[in-house]
Amino acid sequence: MFNRAVGLSRERGVKWWSKAGRQDPRIKELNVALEHSRSQLAASEQRVREAESRAEELARENQVLGHLAGNLSAFSHSLEMTQTSFASLAHSMEQERQYAIRIQGIASSNQASIDAIATNLEQLADASGEASEKVRTLARRTADATAEIGTLVSAIRADSAQSRGHIASLAEHSSSYSGVGQSAASTMRQLLDMSTVAEGSASVSALRSFCELAKLDHLIYKFRVYKVLFGVSQERGSDFTDHTHCRLGKWYREGDGALHYAHLAGYKDIDAPHAAVHRCAFDAIDAHASGDTAAMLKAVAEMESASLAVQEGLERVVASGEQSPALLQRRRESEAQSR
């Protein structure tokens, strides 16, 4: 008798649904919208994967740019040290030039003394023959040596001046290279900042896309439940997934949700109501199968309440990511480095 009543109830539900679909345009539109939503699921999922892939690529580019900027800064620092070394060398060469000037002054002073000695010796040479000749020879040698010293000092001064010119030129080039290095490092830092902003935007877009996709998944999930309750669908409880194996559940426990977004506000508030949505769906289907209308209605009400809580939690997660995109960027950087 009970089975007959259940069969009649299911048959009436089918007739009511078919009749309502023909008479009520809202139900007809809902069916059309459901089919359209299913066709868009695959495209939406592909866009989510592309957005996540772009975010990971930007994280890797961001890391490379960071290393390059650091290397350029180190190169600029090395150029500055080289410039300092050239300046020190120029100072040493200037001291050497001053010493050469002093030597030349001493040589010039000695020249006058030597000339006076040579004059006296020549005067003495008039008084002594052989001794005079030796003295003259010594005087000539002394004069020649003095001339050679003067020539050497002049050459040293010329070489010193030329060296100073080369060193000044090298220092100028070093300064120019240092400026170029600093400019390149600044440009790389700007590129790094731009890459960081782009990566944050891509991460937020991927998060928003997935959350909207999860909402659509559960809307279709609930619609399937209602079709069973109205007797239009012959699906059983075993045909429905639990909260750990649906798209949102996998994302939450082992996918990108657990890897990149677990630190965001609202993330931990999703799990309990999400589990309640699936549990109440099973309870409603079981109550319908056993003919317990009161229990079925209670389970449906709890399923809808939990579904709203899941949507609110997803919105909080997205809002947290949009307000603090730097958190997403740092988390993806740490993930890229760990790989």
Automatic annotation (TrEMBL):
<dbReference type="InterPro" id="IPR025991">
    <property type="entry name" value="Chemoreceptor_zinc-bind_dom"/>
</dbReference>
<dbReference type="Pfam" id="PF13682">
    <property type="entry name" value="CZB"/>
</dbReference>
<feature type="coiled-coil region">
    <location>
        <begin position="27"/>
        <end position="68"/>
    </location>
</feature>
<keyword id="KW-0175">Coiled coil</keyword>
<feature type="domain" description="Chemoreceptor zinc-binding">
    <location>
        <begin position="218"/>
        <end position="284"/>
    </location>
</feature>
<feature type="compositionally biased region" description="Basic and acidic residues">
    <location>
        <begin position="330"/>
        <end position="339"/>
    </location>
</feature>
<feature type="region of interest" description="Disordered">
    <location>
        <begin position="320"/>
        <end position="339"/>
    </location>
</feature>
<protein>
    <recommendedName>
        <fullName>Chemoreceptor zinc-binding domain-containing protein</fullName>
    </recommendedName>
</protein>
